[in-house]
Amino acid sequence: MLIKKLSLILTLCSLFFLSIETKSAWPDRDGDGLPDRPEGSLINRNSCLDEASAEFTVSPEKINFGQSATLTWTVDMPTHCTNHVRFALNGKFVDQSGSQVITPSATSIYKFTLGGNNLGIYQQSELLAKVDVNYQANIIIDKTTNDPASALVNALKNPSSEKKIIELCDVDIDLTNQSTVVIGSNTSLIASPACVRTPHILGSRIFITKARSYYDPVFNITGNNVLISGFRLEGPTKSLDRWGDGSKERGIAIHPQGIASITNIEVSNMEIYHWSGAAIGISDNQENDEKGYLNASNMNAIHITKNFIHDNKHGNGYGYGVNIGGGAYALITKNVFDGNRHAIAGGSRAGNKIDYSGYVLRENLVLPSGGRHCREGIFGPCWHTHQIDMHGDQNEWYTDSNWLCGKAGENLIIERNTITYTNGPAIKIRGNPVGKAIVDNNIFASSNDSIEQNGECGGWGDNIKNPIDVRSNNIFNTNPLREIANCDLTGDGQPDEFMATGVTWWVRSSVTGQWYYLNTMSEKIDQLEFRKINDDLKCDVVLRSPNGIEQQYSSGGLSPWQPNN
Q1: Which stretches of 175-246 are assigned E, i.e. beta strand?
Q2: Distance between CA 210 and CA 525 in Å, rounded?
Q3: Are residues 515 and 438 part of one domain?
Q4: Alpha-helix residue ranges (DSSP H) falling in 436-528
Q5: pLDDT for 193
Q6: Secretion signal: which residues (predicted)?
């Protein structure tokens, strides 16, 4: 064991020659983070300190995350000095000799201080010890973790050739004062199995409390094979009171860098809310290819699924649930959107490149609230905008910033979604898609007039040269929220709300009050009954047959139809 030791024994004759030094007087020549003080040097003078000999050690000096080390200190000095010198460990008073077990979350430096008054002047000396913390490939951060924010940030920064898995369990982590944390390849930031977000558990929380720029997201995913799953991510904007570029926070940015083939990035089972910029922002990488790396050939590379994305608001712009721009593509499935200015926003392309954006929206639920847009200022008018969006790449003559016309993205697939929002248009494509825009087998609470499109800029008429393909199997003027069944589908002993929209099934938990995706099924409530069929605690969904015989059921509403034996 390497012992860091500082002898404080000084002869009285040295008093005349010793100059007062400060902590910065000794450089860190060996690069270990500790100043290399000459043996016997002091920060300030005190006659009792002159006669003291102190030892401050840590064992072991290197530990794995979650392990402990022991700090030990002892001071020898004349007995007449006992009442004149006080001792502190990291600013807290301790006895003259002792030890303390520590479990640091990151590499840390500890300070042991001797201090006392001499002729009315406080003087002190100090000893330092360093503990290096190594992060294993798999770590758990929970409520027993000392400084969980530091543990999280350092674990994500720690380079590793292995797949990193960082689990969160029953913990709140404040990253307000932390700049963007980069998440590289082969990394999972997830909830522990016992603490994962469910209809019974809200889950761990990562949050910030101050506004920040759109270009300073909390997390920035830059690599492949990344999973973010199972906890809450909370922003600082709880109401529509934010304007300007300084208040456009993003929870997660996805912008892969230096990667020729982007694959397997997933954000799932999260609650993401109160971000005035965007809950999730996705952009492409155009470093080596004019068409970028996220395109129609790998539109499933980024998957946003089974999240609750809500109350992301900004006064006169942004306030997006998911924002796809800069030539990016994303697959967005089985999410619940509520209270966002736009549930889905699209930026047509990357600058002046031919790299156009696109998305697949499939089996999502858009709830009624949100869409509110206000002019900046106290007396600015407010109105309701649309929920599913793709901007054009040009502007009309009367504006230079709304991107209302021209080419609007590449391929836009909107299928089997349920949109109960009626305060404004459900869908607005602000130009002609380069490829195609398909609206297929969706359920709308509003009329077919709620699907809008712009065309080319200027000229006469609507200039729509590539119209949206609105299929005949879409259903309009139907609000499934008006037809709800009640049964305990989550197994907590309390009745939950069940909704069958005509394309998907959803359950609203009596514990969390949130909607969760159950299944992709076309049967509606008038075709179903609810009772316990198998041996678990959950209510099952039973298919009514014409002759009254219950021939098939879905276990908890989650499974495919199976025989009722």
Answers
A1: 181-183, 187-191, 205-207, 219-221, 226-229, 232-234
A2: 45
A3: no
A4: none
A5: 96
A6: 1-25
477 inside domain = no
Preceding amide of 60 cis, omega within 30 = yes
Domain membership of residue 214 as a residue range: 138-470
Interior CA angle at 303 toward 302 and 305, to 5°? Answer: 160
Q: What is the chain's Cα-based Rg?
A: 31
The confidence score (pLDDT) of residue 28 equals 56
Distance CA 54, CA 56 (A): 7
C-alpha 5/C-alpha 536 separation (Å) is 63
Question: Are 22 and 165 within one domain?
Answer: no
Distance from the Cα of residue 56 to its chain's centroid: 41
Comparing C-alpha atoms, which of 402, 339, 395 is closest to residue 365? 339
Tell me: do 398 and 529 sit in the same domain: no
Q: Determine the Cα–Cα distance for residues 305 and 273; give it in Å rounded to an integer.
A: 15
Q: Three-state SS for 193? A: helix
Residue at 491 is within a domain:
yes
| CATH number where 45 lies | 2.60.40.10
Beta strands 271-273; 308-310: pairing state: parallel
Q: How far apart are CA 464 and CA 457, in angstroms?
A: 10
The DSSP code sequence of 283-329 is: ----SS-TT-SSSGGGTTSEEEES-EEE----SSS--EEEEE-TT-E
Closest listed residue to residue 49, CA positions, set 24, 23, 86? 86
Measured between alpha carbons, how far is 453 from 457 in angstroms, rounded to an integer?
12
Quick one: 209 and 314 in the same domain? yes
> Are 411 and 555 in a shared domain?
no
DSSP bridge partners of 110:
129
Final residue belonging to a domain, choices 77, 104, 134? 134
The answer to whether residue 475 sits within a structural domain is no
Inter-CA distances, 411 with 65, 137, 395, 449, Å: 46, 39, 21, 22
What is the DSSP track for 78-131?
-GGGTTTEEEEETTEEE-SSEEEEE--SS-EEEEEEEEEEETTEEEEEEEEEEE
Closest of 353, 249, 362 to residue 311, by C-alpha? 249
Tokens for 114, please give them: 């001797």
- Written as one letter, the residue type at 543 is L
Q: State pLDDT tens for residues 224-257.
A: 999 999 999 999 988 766 666 668 899 999 998 8
Which residues, listed in sequence order, are joined to residue 183 by a DSSP beta bridge? 221
Cα dihedral sign for 10, 13, 19, 20? positive
> What token pair was written down for 154?
């350092």
State the alpha helices, DSSP H only, in 106-253: 148-157
Instruction: Please give the order of strands across the beta sheet that includes 85-89.
Output: 62-64, 121-134, 108-118, 85-89, 92-94
Do residues 377 and 508 both lie within one domain? no
CA distances from 226 to 2, 184, 471, 558 (A): 39, 8, 35, 26
- Sites in the chain below the pLDDT cut of 70: 1-46, 118-119, 160-161, 240-246, 287-291, 377-379, 399-400, 548-550
User: What per-residue confidence (pLDDT) applies to 243?
Assistant: 64
Q: Supply 529's token pair.
A: 């009954």
